[in-house]
Amino acid sequence: xxxxxxxxxxxxxxxxxxxxxxxxxxxxxxxxxxxxxxxxxxxxxxxxxxxxxxxxxxxxxxxxxxxxxxxxxxxxxxxxxxxxxxxxxxxxxxxxxxxxxxxxxxxxxxxxxxxxxxxxxxxxxxxxxxxxxxxxxxxxxxxxxxxxxxxxxxxxxxxxxxxxxxxxxxxxxxxxxxxxxxxxxxxxxxxxxxxxxxxxxxxxxxxxxxxxxxxxxxxxxxxxxxxxxxxxxxxxxxxxxxxxxxxxxxxxxxxxxxxxxxxxxxxxxxxxxxxxxxxxxxxxxxxxxxxxxxxxxxxxxxxxxxxxxxxxxxxxxxxxxxxxxxxxxxxxxxxxxxxxxxxxxxxxx
Length: 349
What we know:
The chain has 349 residues and is mainly alpha-helical. It has two domains: 2-226, no CATH class; 231-345, no CATH class. The chain has helices at 2-26, 33-55, 75-94, 101-125, 127-157, 165-174, 178-201, 209-215, 238-243, 248-251, 268-283, 285-304, 312-321, 323-336, 340-345, and strands at 253-259, 262-267. The protein has a two-stranded antiparallel ribbon with strand order 1-2. α3 packs across α4, α4 crosses α7 and α11 (268-283) crosses α14. 28% of the residues are buried.
C-alpha cells in the first residue's frame, strides 16, 4: 500500500514537471483544462490536506513522538494563508477576465506569497516538502505568468478604465516589465500580510504568528526549540532523571549509566525507580502498562518545558518530592524480590 501511494505521488510530481516545462516553452499547459483542474486539485488541495490531517492537525510539540509541523498555538495563521493562496490560485486560473487594477495587484501579491510560502515549506518539512511543495510553487508561477500575459493583451486591445489615482498606480505596476513588477509586488506583500495579521489578532493569533508557527516547533527546518529535547531520554523515568541533575551534595549521584545509547547521571533514587518498574513489568505487566501510559503524560509535559528543568534548584526540589515514592519502591522491592540490591545495582549498566 505504501509503495502504491509513493508511486502515485511520483507520477503526480512528474505530471506537474511536464506541465510546467511545456507552459514555459509553449505558453500552454500540457493537459486540457479539465485534466489540468484535476491535477491542480490533487496537488494543491488533496495531498496537502491529507498531510496536514496526518502530520499536523491536533498534534503537539513532542520530543519522543511525531511532532507537529506547525506550532499548535500559531497554526491557524498558516492554515489561513494556505486557504487564501489556494482560493487566489483557482480564481485566477478559472476566471474569464482580469479584475480591477487594485484587486489584480492584491491577487498577484497573494499568488507571489503562495510561491514564497511553498519554497519555505519545502525547507521546513524536509523530504515531503521538497517533493510536495516545490511542485506546488511551480504551479503557482503559472497563473502569475498568465496574468502578466492577460494584462499586456488587455493593455494593447483596450483602454482600461482608470477612474482614480490608486487605480492608475496599480495599472502602472501591472503593466510594468516583470523585472520591475515582481519586486514591487514583493514589497506590496508586506501590507497584505499586515492586514491578514490584524484580522487574525481577533481570533487569538499573535503579530508574529506567521514566524512562530515555524520556529516554535521541534525537528523541522526552521525549528528553534530543538534544544528543549537535548537531554530528554525518551521512555525513561522523567521525574527521576530530572531529579538526578540537581546539586551533587543533595541528589548524591553514584555513577554514569547508559540509556538508549546515551550517558545519563544515576543516583540511588533513579536506580531504585527503574528497578521497581522492571519488577512490576515482570510480575504485573497489565498494571505496568497502565502506569507507564499515564506516566508518559507527565513526561510529555516535561518535554514541552524541559528548559525549566535545567535549573539545579528545581531538580533538588523534585528529588525531595520523589523521596516518599523512592521509599515505597524500595519497600516493594525488598518484599517481592529475592535479591533487591542486585536488581538495583544492575540498572543502566
